[in-house]
Amino acid sequence: MKIQTVETFPLFYQLPKPYGDANGMKAYRTCYLIRITTDSGASGWGECVDWLPTLHKGFQERIIPYLIGQSVADRRKLVRTIKKWHARAAASVSMALIEIIASHSRLNVCDLWGGKFREKVPVYASFQSYSEDSSWQKQSVKAIEKAAAEGFSTFKVKIGGKSIAEDQQHILSVQNFLLGKMNLVLDANQSYDAAAALQWQSLLQKWPNVLWFEEPIPVKQVTEYRTLRQRLAVPLAGGENMESTADFIPLLSGHALDFITPDPLHIAGIDEYRETASLARTFGIRMTPHAYDGALTRLYALFVQASLEPWSKMEEDAIEPVEWDVMENPFTRLIPIQPSNGEFAIPCGNGIGTEIDMDLLAFYSWDGSSYG
Ligand code: MG
């Protein structure tokens, strides 16, 4: 099977009201989908997110000319070459080629990988808590109430973008709603140093419903993480921006985290992402995927989680949850399947077992104009 065409679908959406985290406000959401079709007629979808003009030029001028005529069976070699040019583009090509092989074999992606351990995977509602509005705290609690009404029972909320006092006031009002009956994740996006992170300790030790504290400090500070892991009352998580399995080795071998949070979009290829997941299991450290940008990427995170061995024998089906973007973002509906009661049922048809929403692709097509 040789690659015959590669189509590209750059998507853009201007947010009516910006939202954000400790890294700043987002004014827009983008997505870049590709569809690879072979000479046998089989096709597969891939996805990446970056500055659209860069992605578009890279695909049109270098990646597509390189891919045309190549054998789909050479996936690892092709992805390894594209990784040298653009790691996220390599991830998208990897997705498309996996789907083609699975569809051609009349298998679901999970079956291609050795089968599912579970039919449903838990997801948690992920928020960008800040807005430019002075009532951002109230709006944040309202958004959590809405997600709870939709069946979510775990919520990831941002801290680190305001003073510790203001963030703590916000989290106290979130906890007043959750009442210990629903779970909370705090994400500081690497904002603090160890001393600032420890200012949360007196609250954290009262809150058994905090599942993890995500990236309180820069994730490459392995020794500091190890110290914090011993001193903080809650599990620590991090690693969403790592680009390779090797990047996780210091964190895993240093036992610096309780959870790693790899993102299938940021690691250059689903094969390497799966290797990262296996490595976490080998080290006995849990793995909860970051999957904020892109519905297809998130679907692959869910496929991998469904195919991953349980982390513990304590429960028959111990599997870590996958991030679910609940902010205003039309691209979260590119895959028509939505979670129910905080769980996502893995589609079991051939390939990815579902269809990309083509109307949505056409509606949000990027017009090529500059943005920023
Ligand atoms: Mg995070």
- CATH names the topology of the largest domain as TIM Barrel
Number of helices: 13
Briefly note the structural class of the backbone.
Answer: alpha/beta
Principal-axes geometry comes out as globular
Please, what is the CATH homologous superfamily of the largest domain?
A: Enolase-like C-terminal domain
> Proportion of β residues?
15-25%
Element order, helices and strands?
A: EEEHHHHEEHEHEHHEHEHEHEHEEH
Main features:
single chain; 372 residues; alpha/beta; Enolase-like, domain 1; TIM Barrel; 4-stranded antiparallel beta sheet; 13 helices; 13 strands; binds magnesium ion
Descriptive overview:
With 372 residues, this protein is an alpha/beta fold. It has helices spanning 52-67, 75-85, 87-104, 109-112, 136-149, 164-178, 194-198, 201-204, 222-231, 245-253, 270-283, 295-307, 358-363, and strands at residues 3-21, 24-38, 43-48, 120-126, 130-131, 154-158, 183-187, 210-214, 236-238, 259-260, 286-287, 322-325, 343-345. Strands 4, 6, 7, 8, 9, 10, 11, 12 and 13 form a nine-stranded mixed beta sheet that branches. The chain has a four-stranded antiparallel beta sheet with strand order 3-2-1-5. Magnesium ion (MG) binds next to loops.
